[in-house]
Specification:
Number of domains: 2
Strand order of the largest sheet: 4-3-2-7-8
Distance between the termini: 34 Å
CATH architecture of the largest domain: Sandwich
CATH class of the largest domain: Mainly Beta
CATH topology of the largest domain: Immunoglobulin-like
Family: Belongs to the CD200R family.
Number of strands: 15
Shape: rod-shaped
Membrane topology: Single-pass membrane protein
Number of helices: 0
InterPro entries: CD200R, CD80_C2-set, Ig-like_dom, Ig-like_dom_sf, Ig-like_fold, Ig_V-set
Largest sheet: 5 strands, antiparallel
Helix content: under 10%
Keywords: Disulfide bond, Glycoprotein, Membrane, Receptor, Transmembrane, Transmembrane helix
GO molecular function, one term: signaling receptor activity
Order of helices and strands: EEEEEEEEEEEEEEE
Length: 176
Amino acid sequence: IGNSSVLTCPPKSNITMVTWKISPKVGGPCTVGYRADQNKTDRTNCSDSMNWKFRPDRDPALEIRQMGIAHEGNYTCEVVATEGNFHKTYHLTVRVPPRLTLYCDDHGNPVCEAAAGKPAARISWVLESNSTSREEGHDNGTVTVLSKFAAHSTNVTNITCLVSHPAGNQSKSIAC
């Protein structure tokens, strides 16, 4: 999330026309097109964050800037050239790193929260424990995972929470 991504088309010589057909999971479809005979580009219902990476007659790659969850969906490139018609489809999924918080609850138990990640994060503890976890889904597709640490002994002074996620792993320590 927040990064740029470039989707490539099959490279062909003598391109007549290129069309990117975008079907996001949320919102309506949009298209980005190019016609060689008129040397003209066109956009229909696409946000400003989606555009040609270079000149479409040389390289018909699509660039998506400041990637967000709203960009998830199917992206199909259709190339018409003298060699024939060619298609390439991408199924774009956006990963969102969770926000890690570690705090002590009212009973002095460490609580680790991995908030608004996509997909859901996995939480573990450095020491073995009878931890309890719960997940809460959000409307935008992100998930918050909450894990409470229950120590086997009362002499535990410092505890570390480990959060595993495809967008990067994190850890924090606390003494309750």
